[in-house]
Amino acid sequence: MPSKPPLKALQAFDALGRTGSIALAALDLGVTPGAVSQQLRKLEDALQATLVHHDGRGLRLTPLGTRYHARIREGFAAFDEAGAILGDAADDIIVLSCLTTVLGKWIGRRMRDWTDLDAHARIALVGADEEPDLSRGEADMRIYYGGRIHPPHRVELFTDHVVPACAPALIEGHRLSGPEDVLGFPLLHIAWNPRFTAGPGWQDWGRLVGRHPPSGDVTYGLSGSAIDAAIAGQGFVLAQTAFIGPELESGRLVIPYDLRLPLPEPYHLAWNPTSLEKPGARAFHRWLLGEGRAQGLLAAPAR
């Protein structure tokens, strides 16, 4: 079974993907080519996957390796972005950390509302799946989901619900006689990170409508990617209501049957108390709480 890859192995793999050769990767990292090769073997052993191969001229990424590197690069780019933010000498930047999809599909879309209220507070948004240590100043605030260990200074924001959504073209020309007909279309699945309590899946929704869903459809590692696939007409997605508001308003997604299931855990906002002394931080904190309350009302099923 695949295990968590070592950070040094990921760094070596990223360097190979960026530079295109063992020698240049070694130069980039300040180590020997042999050390890079050793880390690549460790990575493949940990993941139980073939990511590189010899093509006669040297090591190259396999097709799987190329796709994996694209995701790894996103992670290292986020580290670089966070480092640049934290390295900024200005003490008045308020750093809000969020899960990647929460940033891209929810709070990031609402920031214009905040800037209309307060154009002077300096906000930096960082998408990161790893939880920052707020006590060490790795971020000022964090929107996080669930969690086995909660920061001491936190408040519940909202509990989201999932609902089946699709592009209008997917069901155009089809006469749906009931919610169970949704299960006859391609279904897009979401593989939750093992450290979270998984949200409801199609099996759960199938029990809600009294029909067992088929298996064998596509699974995505990020809910945002599954939503994007649904927008592209690839199938139905059990989308979190917080992540699809603009798509519903624009008509890019529709909900034929509004039968919702709650996530097993809520989203929280955590913060470092000393960070609230930054200019605009208390107002921004209150605004986030208000956005959370509003989203909770929108997510709840209609009575």
Automatic annotation (TrEMBL):
Residues 5-62 form the HTH lysR-type domain. InterPro entries: LysR-type_TF_proteobact-type (IPR058163), LysR_HTH_N (IPR000847), LysR_subst-bd (IPR005119), WH-like_DNA-bd_sf (IPR036388), WH_DNA-bd_sf (IPR036390). It holds the Pfam family LysR_substrate. GO terms for molecular function: DNA-binding transcription factor activity; sequence-specific DNA binding. Keywords: DNA-binding, Transcription, Transcription regulation. GO terms for biological process: DNA-templated transcription. PANTHER family: HTH-TYPE TRANSCRIPTIONAL REGULATOR, HTH-TYPE TRANSCRIPTIONAL REGULATOR TRPI. Belongs to the LysR transcriptional regulatory family. This is LysR family transcriptional regulator. It comes from Aureimonas endophytica. The lineage of its organism: Bacteria, Pseudomonadati, Pseudomonadota, Alphaproteobacteria, Hyphomicrobiales.
